[in-house]
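Question (not urgent): is this output format expected?
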Amino acid sequence: MSLNSLQPTDNEILSVADFTRRIKDLLEGNLAPGWIRGEISNLRRQSSGHIYFTLKDRQSQLSCALFRGDALRQRLDLRDGMQVVVYGEVSVYAPRGGYQYICRLILEDGLGRLQVEFDRLKRKLHAEGVFAAERKVALPRLPQTIGFITSPSGAAIRDFLSILQRRGWRGRIVVLPTKVQGAGAAEAIVHMLQVAETLGIFDVLVLGRGGGSLEDLWCFNEESVARAVAACTIPLISAVGHEIDFTLSDFAADVRAETPSAAAELITSGRIEVREQLRHLAERLMGHTHTELDECRRMLELTVNRLNAQSPKNKIEQAYVRLDDISGRLLATYQRRLSRLHIDFMTRSHRLSVASPARRLAEARQRLAYLSGQYQRLHQQVGKHERQKLQYLEKRLQGTSLQDVLRRGFVIVRDAQGNVVTRKAAIRKGQQLSNDFFDGEIAVKVMDA
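Got this back:
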């Protein structure tokens, strides 16, 4: 069959876009993300923040793109001629019909080998359950003895101690010296973990050092160290590097702290929480105490008031007040009664003084005797002053009596029937009369009328 004999149908003919789409699906669907090593050339930085370059070796070249979001996370200063290892996935750019490699992470070539080893060990240990959450133990809330596995000359221990002191931690810290970088560091760390287990005095262990490159921190990515950290029975905090650094020890440890200083804050957080809780409880206790004291003070005052109200002294004082009140009211009643009696006495005395002595003498004497008795009783009740007034009135009354009149030289003339003769015209010649003198009575006979 010759090529000229081939006559495609319309259904067999693809557009450029359809064919490019097939290539895109084929490449992107069958090529998994992975690592590629090469040399950077033709580096171009766009104002949008995207970076484009060519990754090449002696036989081939590959167009690469590092978009803005991924570029901002890179710590590597890219330049032409740099040997790198890139991680990403292939992508087809349909408008130009070309493919390019979308980079997500770029490492220097030496670091790239370490990163690949890091990822391999991480997958292996994770699959074995070394990083499993159920194997981890909780940190004690108030640790008293801390073991810090680190280099005694590094800045990590100084930062760690500074944070502990600033946050007021009280306890014991033991530095377990070890290499934290270079050859033999992994073996030294594993040995020191075993020593800490043997001593059996630690409430918590801290494994850490300051920041550094991936090569500097590599001993904490050794498989032996990760397994020793996971197997440690003492609660362990991994505090390696800076916040952005992750090691296999971080995944294997019970707790990861971004820095040694963060580990110190983590250890002291329980103490600070307890101290804050104690402060809050003390404030509440003080408030409740003041409230209870105020209530007890109020109840005591109420009880004292009730006790005072029921005390014999208070009752006696109240009785005195009532006695004074009754005495005052009684005295006022007596005074009003005495006043009325005095007015009555004066009225009757006046009536007696204007009445006839002969006709009212007996009644006056009886009334006088009665009033004298009343006067005597009242005189005894109201005192000396009233008795003096009564005596004065009595003298005046006696001055108006019949005997006092006779004593002054008057004579009462009576007829034979005992009637008082007050007019000369009533006397007849030869009539028998009786003359009453102060000292006696004389009978006379009228000789001449």
